[in-house]
Amino acid sequence: MKRSSIIALFAALALLSVASCGPKEVAEPEQMLFIDTLYTDSPFAKDENIVKFNGKYFMYYSAYYPDKYGVNRLCVGIAESEDLTNWTRVSQLLPVQEAETNAICAPGAIIRNDTLHLFYQAYGNFGTEDICHATSVDGINFEHDPTNPVFTATGAWNCGRAIDAEVVDFNGKYYMYFATRDPGKEIQFQGVAAANRNSGLHAGDWTLQLDETILKPELLWEGQCIEGATTIVRGNTLYMFYGGAYNRSPQMIGVATSKDGIHFKRMSDEPFLRNGEPGSWNELESGHPDIFEDEDGTTWLFYQGFNKAANSWEISKIRVFWKHGKPYML
């Protein structure tokens, strides 16, 4: 073999070695944009929560349905996907109990053994926005907890509202994070309750862990609101992604961490994910996040966006990577 051919062969092998040993950090090739227009002219899908259950991906989210008078009311929409990118609405969970007042929305799900537990807020007014609970063995058909509501915010530090339930198994307990407001109903912030792991997660099983807020808006971009908490456990640390500022203010996403599930510290004074450019689908909001870890360890951050011109609420996702205990995006 000629010397030039040998050099070319070694060069090719070197390139192949670099390619095979290089980073496998690949961003999402196709942008997901979930649009629901089943009962509306303008797309409306928000407050998403994603799980994998019985081999299927499910998205639970705030959606519309027409009541018996033909008036659109909020419910929990249910969508399915085979690839986390293409979603189809397949059903909905409707308000049927007196405890659920006029509507339900903002779901959060956990899987325990062979049962999916869904937590969601009763939507009506500040006096009846409590957390309710339903269970399912197939991800679509649910039984409403007869003890609903299972959690009501109490204490002089809040106005009695509890919304945006997020439940996570951490440090031997189930922690429930919720958004509430100050007694003047101006500032929105986070609270936390907990239940024993062997409890039924019914009313009476949840105990407030701190008689004050655990995370309140302090940074300029957070405005007057921290809401929509979503959590992921990595090692002995709980990561909380949250929406900062009220909807369309614009809302952006931040991250805080905790070692005990109660006391949190921000990872940065800057947003983890900002809203989009003018004219984009998320020009006024990248908000109400949901962090989802797939079975292969791949992590995705789902979030809602709002477009002013189209008056639309839509849902997308972006891949999240981890290095030295810190999340980042490409």
Mean pLDDT: 92
Q: In the CATH hierarchy, what is the class? A: Mainly Beta
- Approximately how much helix is present in the residues? under 10%
* Widest beta sheet: strand line-up: 1-2-3-4
Q: Approximately what portion of the residues adopt beta-strand conformation? A: over 45%
CATH homologous superfamily label: Glycosyl hydrolase domain, family 43
Can you describe what's shown?
With 330 residues, the protein is mainly beta. It has one domain: Tachylectin-2, Chain A (5 Propeller). It is built from one helix and 20 strands. The chain has one helix at 3-21, and strands at residues 46-53, 56-66, 72-81, 87-93, 103-112, 115-123, 131-136, 143-144, 163-170, 173-181, 188-196, 207-208, 226-234, 237-244, 252-258, 265-266, 286-293, 299-307, 312-323, 326-328. A four-stranded antiparallel beta sheet has the order 1-2-3-4, with no helix packed on it. Strands 5-6-7-8 form a four-stranded antiparallel beta sheet, with no helix packed on it. Strand 15 (252-258) and strand 16 form a beta hairpin. The termini are far apart. 42% of the residues are buried.
Question: Can you give me a brief rundown of this structure?
Answer:
The chain has 330 residues and is mostly beta strands.
Properties at a glance:
330 residues, mainly beta, Tachylectin-2, Chain A, 4-stranded antiparallel beta sheet, 1 helix
Describe the SSE topology.
Layout: H1 3-21, E1 46-53, E2 56-66, E3 72-81, E4 87-93, E5 103-112, E6 115-123, E7 131-136, E8 143-144, E9 163-170, E10 173-181, E11 188-196, E12 207-208, E13 226-234, E14 237-244, E15 252-258, E16 265-266, E17 286-293, E18 299-307, E19 312-323, E20 326-328
Antiparallel strand pairs: 1-2, 2-3, 3-4, 5-6, 6-7, 7-8, 9-10, 10-11, 11-12, 13-14, 14-15, 15-16, 17-18, 18-19, 19-20
